[in-house]
Design goal:
Layout lengths: L4 H22 L2 H22 L5 H25 L3 H4 L19 H10 L6 H12 L4 H7 L4 H15 L10 H20 L3 E2 L5 H17 L4 H14 L25 H15 L6 H14 L8 H14 L3 H15 L1 H11 L6 H13 L3 H14 L1 E2 H13 L3
Parallel strand pairs: 1-2
Length: 406
């Protein structure tokens, strides 16, 4: 019988918790992940026809534990047959944990996220390992999302696993210092899903949706962390516009031209509530500020009603905390909307030596067009189009440039 969406969702939600339970009990990240994948395949083959077990997570842990210990025993037998039984007897013995040992719980998902975002890993490796181990995506799915060969992604994930081999499973002693890496990884996954950096598609909704799902998990496990709440709010408020960002042929529709009736009102309401509560607790962090900016956009009934002065004020605070090129470039747009395109161009010139890429020229083209310089704007749009690897963005920029031809 074909797998149902309910079964698929149940398997995906339980996969990181099952993997976390096995890694916590036995170690052996590589072997544990293989065993979990075998258990998921077994469940996908049995549950649709036989029905769900009373305790799906327990079923998966039991089956995966058996597969793992069989594999470990086989490996040990080749090396040290006489010590096999003593060396590889699982602490849980497939039943209840011994007195004093905590039972599997959802907190294992957070521990797994911390492991995948270990500081020894590069950001691309953190993203790949997170999507594989916590998100439950296959190597082929991750490779397709990032437009690299499956073999390349498999090597990246394999190297990441090797680097975290032997790392103690559980929350790090100073886990608060590791949390920003976890949130940054989820933020990067979402951004790639919301606006693909290359390829024929403007968006990859499955990738953005996975980032939202994982961020919900972090927020649920750390409900008092304002930045986790801020990141979830930012994702919801941004993703709420997804259906209005593309035209009937997949073309990019800019924010000021979107049909706001197609925005997801429920997501906006949830996002606004999250960021409002987070901001009320004290000094805001970068994700809360970004979410607040998104909320101002989403709550405006029309482009003309957008409170750009409030947005500029929020960007001033954000740039004070995170003076990165993207934040500063976005602030330039707010300056132009409040003080006029010439003021924005002056601010943009100050960024030219520190910021590279197509977005700088795209903003320059927009401001020059608003300032009444069509030829210069056309040149900037064409320069931006030549630099982007995203075909929808390229087509949009070239269309803007074509409108300005004399």
């Amino acid at each position: 019988m074909r797998n149902t969406p309910e079964v698929e969702d149940l398997l995906r939600r339980n996969a990181p918790q099952v993997l976390g339970a096995l890694v916590r009990r036995y170690g052996h990240f590589d072997a544990a992940e293989d065993a979990v994948q075998e258990a998921l395949l077994a469940a996908a083959g049995q549950w649709p026809s036989a029905g769900l077990p009373g305790n799906p997570r327990g079923w998966l842990i039991k089956v995966a534990s058996r597969r793992l210990t069989d594999a470990l025993r086989s490996e040990e037998a080749r090396r040290q047959r006489e010590e096999r039984a003593a060396a590889l007897t699982p602490r849980d013995a497939f039943t209840a944990p011994p007195p004093g040992e905590r039972a599997p719980r959802e907190d294992d998902t957070l521990s797994l996220l911390f492991l995948c975002c270990h500081p020894d890993l590069t950001p691309p490796a953190q993203i790949a390992l997170t999507l594989r181990a916590v998100g439950g995506l296959t190597t082929a799915e991750i490779a397709r999302a990032y437009l690299v060969p499956e073999a390349t992604m498999a090597q990246r994930i394999s190297r990441a696993k090797q680097k975290v081999r032997g790392v103690r499973f559980g929350r790090p002693d100073r886990w608060e210092q590791r949390l920003p890496s976890v949130l940054q990884t989820l933020y990067l996954v979402f951004n790639e899903g919301y606006t693909a950096t290359s390829g024929t598609a403007l968006q990859r909704p499955d990738l953005a949706g996975e980032a939202i799902r994982l961020t919900r998990t972090v927020h649920r496990l750390l409900p008092d962390d304002c930045e986790a709440a801020g990141l979830l709010a930012l994702m919801l408020l941004t993703d709420a516009r997804r259906d209005a960002r593309s035209g009937p042929h997949g073309e990019l529709v800019p924010l000021d031209e979107q049909d706001r009736d197609h925005w997801d009102k429920a997501a906006i309401e949830e996002g606004v509530a999250l960021v409002t509560q987070a901001l009320s607790r004290g000094r805001p962090g970068p994700y809360q500020l970004r979410a607040a900016i998104a909320a101002v956009h989403d709550e405006a009934p029309s482009p003309e009603a957008t409170d750009w002065a409030e947005i500029l004020g929020l960007y001033d605070v954000l740039v004070g905390l995170v003076p990165g090129p993207v934040e500063r470039l976005n602030r330039v747009v707010a300056v132009a909307m409040v003080h006029g395109p010439r003021a924005g161009l002056t601010e943009l010139d100050a960024l030219s030596g520190t910021l590279k890429g197509h977005r700088l020229d795209a903003v320059r083209g927009h401001l020059l067009e608003r300032a009444g310089e069509p030829e210069a704007a056309r040149t900037a749009y064409e320069s931006a189009a030549a630099q982007t690897l995203s075909l929808p963005e390229q087509r949009y920029l070239l269309a803007r440039a074509a409108r300005l031809r004399v």
